[in-house]
Amino acid sequence: MSGVFVFIENADGQIPAIAKEMMTAGRIIADGLSEDLVALVIGSDVDDVVDAAFDMGADDVLAADDESLAPFRVEAVGPLVVSLAQDKEPSVILAGASTRGRDLAAWVAADLDAGLVADGTGIKVEDDVVKVTRPVYAGKLLASVFVTEGTQVITLRGRSFPQADGIGNSGSAETVDAVVAEDDIASKVTGFAAKDGGVSLTDANIIVSGGRGVAGPEGFEPVQALADVLGAAMGASRAAVDAGWIPYEHQVGQTGKTVSPDLYIAAGISGAIQHQAGMRTSKVIVAINKDPEAPIFKLAQYGIVGDLFEVLPALTEEFSGRLS
Ligand SMILES: Cc1cc2nc3c(=O)[nH]c(=O)nc-3n(C[C@H](O)[C@H](O)[C@H](O)COP(=O)(O)OP(=O)(O)OC[C@H]3O[C@@H](n4cnc5c(N)ncnc54)[C@H](O)[C@@H]3O)c2cc1C
Prior knowledge:
The chain is an alpha/beta fold. The chain has helices at residues 17-33, 47-55, 74-88, 99-112, 220-230, 238-242, 273-279, 296-299, 308-323; strands at residues 4-8, 37-43, 60-65, 92-96, 115-120, 122-126, 129-136, 141-145, 152-156, 174-175, 206-210, 233-236, 263-267, 284-289, 302-305. It is elongated. The chain starts with a strand and ends with a helix. The structure holds flavin-adenine dinucleotide. Flavin-adenine dinucleotide is lined by residues 211-213, 237-240, 251-256, 268-270, 272, 274-275, 278, 288-291, 294, 307-309.
């Protein structure tokens, strides 16, 4: 059993940040185990992705290039990764804790009867054991979890590791074939609808979020105005989403998105543990709340006690002056 497989998400030749982050994590594991870092490049027209995988530090690349493998469908990609794992017997199979990565990891772990450690935020290798740090109890505790035997399947949250880039490896990939014929794949992708504008919450470096304190849908206007000036995504608490002021896709927290931006600005959010579960790993947290006792201030590095309807426009004006 040897090798650290990293699943390289890709679409139309593009590699999302989370795949680059997984290559950094994969390198840490591979070096810790003294094993090879093997990138799994699966899709259609993947030559550029193969080159990029080497450039991100892969020792080897296993490449499957077939129209049935793009866009991603777990019924096509899952059996292929399972078959590669049965053939090569890697120590670890690593994927990002994204929608695709979670889908794939669950499929692969179930089919291989392997242990799965999901949603980690850190890793270390001790005595040839890969230990994954994962937040538990809504992020109140960090557990160290590992698998005692066989291949270990791991997913790690986005923005937990820096992106691998420009390592400069090169080589040629070992090509492998798809294992499921198109006719045997139950789901078909008929097209994609682009979302109108806005910055993706999970990819954002900066997030400005509003809670019940915004007091209505129009209360998100100053939140959006600051987000626009900062090039930020807009988040929300569940209270604001449940009130119908903003769509669910903006919800941050235990039952919403888990985010880890460089800067998280929470306006009119009390800081309930379920909200914290989705944002407490943010690098810098700024809270704006008129109640000095609000729990969010215990988590925030910077707190502004005041009315968000005064503070947000003042910040927007100041930032737009400085950033323009
Ligand atoms: C199983 C479960 C899952 C949950 N999942 C989530 C989740 O994913 N995400 C989530 O967010 N919540 C979640 N919740 C709900 C969570 O418990 C809280 O109810 C919710 O986070 C509260 O949202 P809030 O902070 O916006 O509202 P509140 O707690 O009502 O806080 C509003 C804050 O705004 C401040 N304020 C009011 N007016 C102003 C003003 N003009 N200027 C400045 N400050 C002002 C107030 O002082 C107050 O602190 C979940 C709950 C459960 C039980």
